């Protein structure tokens, strides 16, 4: 790995990991508020929104923790990439359905429109891909 | 290479499963309550109140009004008298404070409201939509093309003082 690649790898890994750690932590801190955000997407039966709200933040937290700790980076980047891709699909349906809702991406109650969230997620997806691809396979 | 990909996929699945197990163990009681029908009290209101009205086009205005939406003319009363959309109520933005209570008695808060003014250059209908949402109405739309677009489309207009 060249010096530049190494710096780019660590930078994207840390930013991605930090983002998911933060997102997971704040959502896990207020599960009911997050459940309300999930409910606003009108995709799942009502009670199931709680199941997503109760588990998703911990997946984000775990993946973020592994990325920051530089352990199991590729699987963690795959998880964050998968979550982001699925989320972008859902956001696209939000835009198509014309719903005006807060995306519930980070702080519950903070207002981000679906289109803004889509752009941000496109950036996050690029980070996931960069982290995955730049990872030196010989590293742990 | 394939073995490597398989390992990465497997570990990704393990991360997801671990997250689910952690989430279930931290929130087990909440989920038990929810799935047994005892939703947390804070969740009664599922949707945060909208802050901004939703823009609608001419075709949507015709559909919504045919379905019973309330049309509101945000322009001054003189302009309303010169010509307005059929069935529209006059509620000039500058006089909202004095007319709001009467309006509240006449229009329920769960009605679909469409507000319009003098076309795309006119911000009054949007501002009025914001104020109506803040005052408790839940479904407020803005017809941004307003009176000029309606008239220029050759659709019928009404005249007369409010």
Textual characterization of the structure:
The complex is a heterodimer of chains A (140) and B (162). With 140 residues, chain A is mainly alpha-helical. Chain A has 5 helices and no strands. Chain A has helices spanning 3-29, 31-39, 46-68, 73-97, 114-134. In chain A, α2 crosses α3, α3 (46-68) runs antiparallel to α4 (73-97) and α4 (73-97) runs antiparallel to α5 (114-134). The longest helix of chain A has 27 residues, at 3-29. Chain A is globular and about 50 Å long. Chain B is α/β, with parallel strands linked by helices and 162 residues long. Helix content of chain B is 48%, strand content 12%. Chain B is built from 6 helices and 5 strands, in the order αβαβαβαβαβα. Chain B has helices at 2-35, 58-66, 77-82, 96-106, 124-134, 146-152; strands at 54-56, 70-73, 89-90, 112-116, 139-143. A 5-stranded parallel beta sheet of chain B has the order 1-5-4-2-3. Chain B is elongated, with a radius of gyration of 25 Å. Chains A and B meet through α2, α3 and α4 of A and α1 of B.
Order of helices and strands of chain A: HHHHH
Low-confidence stretches of chain A: none
- Give the overall form of chain A: globular
Tally of DSSP helical segments of chain B: 6
Major sheet of chain B: order of its strands?
Answer: 1-5-4-2-3
Largest interface, C-beta within 8 A: A-B, 37 and 32 residues
Percentage beta strand of chain A = under 5%
The overall strand count of chain B is 5
Summarize the amount of helix of chain A as a percent range.
Answer: over 70%
Question: Descriptors for this entry?
Answer:
heterodimer, A: about 140 residues, mainly alpha, 5 helices, B: about 160 residues, about 10% strand
Outline of the structure:
The complex is a heterodimer of chains A (140) and B (162). With 140 residues, chain A is mostly helical.
